[in-house]
Amino acid sequence: MTINLKPQRFFKKHTLSFVLFFYLALSVFTACAPKAEPKVVTTTGMIGDVIKTIAGDCFDIEVMMGPGIDPHLYKASAGDVKTLQSASIIFYSGLHLEGQLGEVFEALQGKRPVVAVTQNIPETSILKTSSGYGVDPHVWMDASLWASTLDVVKNELSKLEPDCQAKMQSNADAFKPQLLALHDWVKISIASIPDQQRILVTAHDAFNYYGKAYGIDVAGIQGISTESEAAIADIRETANTVVERKVPAIFVESTINPRTIDAVMQAVLDKGQELAIGGQLYSDAMGQAGTAGGTYIGMIYENTKAITEALGGTVPPLPQELEAWAQTWKVEQ
Predict the structure, then answer these.
(1) Residue 273 and residue 248: Cα distance in Å, rounded?
(2) Level-2 CATH architecture, domain 187-328
């Protein structure tokens, strides 16, 4: 009996060819497929704006705390923990701003970079307080200090994506002069307010860096952190200051319940002095995404415009370095 093996040899030969072709095609497809972008997770919008400006499209960026969210009180949900665990790198502000997230960050240290963007700010520039934290974390209120976060972000991201290093360096080099020009513009704006009423009254002490950098007295009804509550004595003291200095306006904040500001206003009115709400300021969070106030520059610009005009000053035109930003967001000057 004769057995014909040729069909089997043909089958084996072509099966092998098919398998080789399949793996070759798979390897080509994998090589051509776009590489997944490393994931960057950050706490606040102010940091997120710096990262987006520097990194462009090199990273997938997620901001945990959106508009109106108070970072002092923020606690991580199960979803937040999952998001943080999926990150290639985590950026946070530091200086105890995100006090409720400390244990979470400690648990993630060593598994991925967990970076405080404020680490390059000189200790001599950090304001000390009598609060439980010992320091004031609101450094973004001074644009010249916030500019020091750019190098931290750029250097850490360059370690993850060396191919993007040149692009990120260029972006950082373009962004820093804008922040320094913004700093000078704020100084000029605040200096136009009459001396006696050059005082910023807000719900909590988020503006001390702003006051120091730009030459305006600051009176926050609550302390550095919103975890503390304003006492009746705090409200009475603030009302007395407003009356003594004939302050024309006080301000609410986007992340703080306005009840303490309402109480001060009523106390001032009871003393026979008129008082207005000068506007809503961005303190611990930026504005809505897709608006000028949803950018760091816009946050400081809109705050300064509201403060200056409500207290009797005049804002000058934006400097040349900020013209492109103003055109992008259709900011009329």
Answers:
(1) 9
(2) 3-Layer(aba) Sandwich (3.40)
